[in-house]
Amino acid sequence: MNIKKIHHVAIIASDYQKSKQFYAEVLGLEIIRENYRSERDSYKLDLKLGDSEIELFSFPEPSKRPTQPEAVGLRHLCFYVDNFDETIQELNQKGIETEPVRVDEYTGGRFTFFRDPDDLPLELHE
Fold first, then answer.
1. Domain tally for the chain?
2. Are residues 99 and 80 in the same domain?
3. Are residues 90 and 59 located together in one domain of the fold?
4. Where is the domain boundary, 30, 46, 63?
5. Do residue 39 and residue 89 come from a single domain?
6. Longest distance between any two alpha carbons in the chain, whole Å
7. 24/70 Cα distance (integer angstroms)
């Protein structure tokens, strides 16, 4: 097997415009392309995240699923940042609440969680 990296992570938003603003403007991810797929009444927004991408989708009446970090399925999406404290401060200034900072007991790295507009758990890691 020759798996090298994660190509993309796909997220389905309940409010496409709100999530687009969050990921592009609040988190500052670069928009690569945006397409409306009329046959599916769905938007697909590709956002650059380092050498990977986040695909943000909209669908009419998407089903709900558990989003807590301990729910079965994808646990959370984690972002590595160069300046951990500054990033937390920027998020807080933009009205994004972050959890208290924790320390990974195995690596010693600091991390915290915050939520996207659909309450999906997102992590920052130094």
1. 2
2. yes
3. no
4. 63
5. no
6. 49
7. 27
Least Cα distance to 49 among 34, 33, 35, 30 occurs for 30
Listed in order, strand segments (DSSP E) in the chain are 8-13, 30-37, 42-49, 52-58, 77-80, 102-103, 110-115, 121-125
Give the 3-state secondary structure percentages of the chain, helix then strand then coil, rounded to 5: 20, 35, 45
Q: Is the pLDDT of residue 91 over 80?
A: yes
Q: Which residues contact 82 (CB under 8 A, 6 or more apart)?
A: none
Based on the fold, state whether residues 51 and 92 are members of the same structural domain.
no
Q: Note if the pTM is more than 0.85.
A: no
Residues with Cβ within 8 Å of 17's Cβ and at least 6 positions away in sequence, in order, are none
As a whole number, mean pLDDT of residues 86-108 equals 95
* CATH code of the domain containing 75: 3.10.180.10
Domain extent, residue 120, equals: 65-126
